[in-house]
Amino acid sequence: MNKKDIVNILFCGRGGQGVLAAAEVCGWAAVLSGFHVKKSEMHGMAQRGGSVESHLRFGKEVFSPLIPKGEADFIIPFDGEEFIRLKSFLKNNGVCLVDDLNRGKGALKGQGRYINVFLLGALSRYLSIDKQFWFEAIEIVFAGKNPRENKGVFLKGREQGGGTKGDAL
């Protein structure tokens, strides 16, 4: 990925799944890597399992936080129905991590609360952000909340992730 390019990532799911935390970690990792970052969150009845989405854009210079339809490089779904609702945002050669969601659910038996970090690990395979910046971002966002375990799950997602299309950015 060239620093002049803008990377568009749409995180989506339901309230309580860690969508906003995942977007926050990704945003911090990009900032720590020297990128300009814009982020926007949209949520309905999040406390009651309603729709939650976070648009994250980063690059050399980003002016708007919202991803136009058909321009998302990545969709990170925490819920299959939310992906179906928002799939029109994915560009033709974009990457959807819905398979990684299913892979993560199997890999994290009994530890579903870490699915957001697993998906970040899978996403990290595609982005030119050093692992050290991901780890620093995890420390910032999950300060005092099992950083060692979160880093382990991140690495598991990075090893087992695969996505469905596209090349590394």
Give a structural overview.
The protein has 169 residues and is α/β, with parallel strands linked by helices. The protein has one domain (7-160): Pyruvate-ferredoxin Oxidoreductase, domain 3 (3-Layer(aba) Sandwich), CATH 3.40.920. The chain is 39% helix and 22% strand. The protein has helices spanning 19-32, 80-86, 98-107, 115-124, 131-141, 147-160; strands at residues 7-14, 36-43, 51-59, 72-77, 90-96. Strands 2-3-1-4-5 form a five-stranded mixed beta sheet, sandwiched between helices. β4 (72-77), α2 and β5 (90-96) form a beta-alpha-beta unit. α1 runs parallel beside α4 (115-124), α1 packs across α5 (131-141) and α3 (98-107) crosses α4 (115-124). The radius of gyration is 14 Å and the shape is globular.
CATH class: Alpha Beta
CATH fold type: Pyruvate-ferredoxin Oxidoreductase, domain 3
Number of helices: 6
Characterize the overall form: globular
- Radius of gyration (CA) equals 14 Å
Largest sheet, in brief, is: 5 strands, mixed
Q: Quote the average pLDDT.
A: 87
Q: Strand share of the residues?
A: 15-25%
Question: What class do helices, strands and sheet pairing give?
Answer: alpha/beta
Distance between the termini: 4 Å
Number of domains: 1
The CATH homologous superfamily is named Pyruvate-ferredoxin oxidoreductase, PFOR, domain III
Strand order of the largest sheet: 2-3-1-4-5
The assigned CATH architecture is: 3-Layer(aba) Sandwich
Order of helices and strands: EHEEEHEHHHH
Percent range for helical residues? 25-40%
Unreliable runs, pLDDT <50, ≥5 residues? Answer: 165-169
How many β-strands, per DSSP? Answer: 5
